[in-house]
Amino acid sequence: MSESEKPVYGRILLKLSGEALMGAEPYGIDTAVLREIAEQISEVHHLGTQVALVIGGGNIFRGVYAASGGMDRSTADYMGMLATVMNALAMQDALEKFGIATRVQSAIDMKEVAEPYIRRKAIRHLEKGRIVIFAAGTGLPYFTTDTTAALRASEIGAEVLMKATKVDGVYESDPVENPLASRYDRISFTEVLTRNLKVMDATAVSLAREQKMRIIVFNLKIKGNIRKAVLGKSIGTVVEEICYA
What we know:
nine-stranded mixed beta sheet, two-stranded antiparallel sheet
C-alpha cells in the first residue's frame, strides 16, 4: 500500500441516513444504491480500517413525523427503531455479498435476526475484521440515530464520526434555500451549537464535544468520498474543538 493510500483512521463510525438507501425511489430501499454504498464501505474495509455503522430509518418510517400527526411519541420512536433494523439487515446482506463478515447488533432484543448490543463483543468483532452495524437506536424513545452514532462511536473508541449526507458539508444556512450560503471547511462544536447549524442534533454534537471526537460531514452521493475521508483527504466539513489564540 502506497503512503497516499494509507488510512489515517484505524477505527471509524459511519452514520448513514435511511433516506440515503432510497436512491430515486420515494420509499424503501433501492438495491442498486445499497450495493453501491456497500461497495464503497468494502473499499475502506480493505484498506484495513475497522468500520462500524449506524443507519437511520427514515426511508421506512420517521417517528417524529408520525408523532406530529398525533401518534404517541414513544410508540412512533419504537417503530422507527424497528425500521433501522430492517435497513441494517439489508446492509449486512449487501456487505456479505462482497465477502465481508458483518454483524448486526440491536439495542432491542430480537435474537432471531440480530445479536444484542454488547460493547465488548462489538469491539471484538471489529478487532477480528468484521463490520458491525448498530441497529434500533439506543433502544429508548426520544433519542435520534445521530445521538446513537455519537454514543456508539464513543463506546467503541472510534477515532472519528463520519456523517455521510446529501450535501457536501456544513453551511451557514440551508444551501437549498440560500444558494449563496458559504460552506465551512472547519468549524468548532461550540459554533455549531450556538449558531444552531443542522449538522446533527444538539445531543449528538454535545456528546462528541465532550468526548473530543471529530465529526466529518461529507456528500455520500459522490462516489469515493468515504474512502477519501478515511485517507484524510480534504472533503466536506470537519467539526472539532478549535482553540483560538
